[in-house]
Amino acid sequence: MKTKKTESKIHPGKQVRVKTVSDKWILRLYVAGQTPKSITAFKNLKAICEEQLNGKYEIEVIDLLKNPQLGRDDQILALPTLVKKLPPPVRKIIGDLSNTERVLVGLDLMQQRL
């Protein structure tokens, strides 16, 4: 996957190194109801996807209060949790996804700074 340096819309004036996206991304966001943290996680994820994935993504929100058994397959231990199903490898990120750089690194969209 190629990398390019672009100016972030989420953090104006900040240059970030991101990977070019070519495949469809399948993302699952596990939440526990409509809590402020769950809503924030979804909004942050949507903003990151809009900026980085060029419409090549699908977000599935799974409410474990309604369907607790759905968390077993992905071994969900904390909420909210984002699981990147495709493209491989599977990755998990726990929290409200407010740290954009951490999310980009976790999704393998940005190289980690040393």
Query: What number of structural domains do the residues give?
Result: 1
Instruction: Note the beta-strand portion.
Output: 25-35%
| CA distance, first residue to last residue | 20 Å
Please give the CATH architecture.
Answer: 3-Layer(aba) Sandwich
Name of the top-level CATH class: Alpha Beta
CATH topology: Glutaredoxin
Q: Structural class, from secondary structure content?
A: alpha+beta
* Count of individual beta strands: 6
What is the percent of helical residues?
A: 10-25%
Query: What is the helix tally?
Result: 2
> Biggest sheet, in brief?
4 strands, mixed
Model regions low in confidence, pLDDT < 50 over at least 5 residues: none
Shape: globular
What's the CATH superfamily, by name? Glutaredoxin
Placed side by side, the strands forming the largest sheet appear as 4-3-5-6
The pLDDT mean sits at 86
**Cα radius of gyration in angstroms:** 14 Å
Main attributes of the structure:
single chain; 114 residues; alpha+beta; Glutaredoxin; four-stranded mixed β-sheet; two-stranded antiparallel sheet; 2 helices; 21% helix
In brief:
The protein is an alpha+beta fold and 114 residues long. The protein is built from 2 helices and 6 strands.
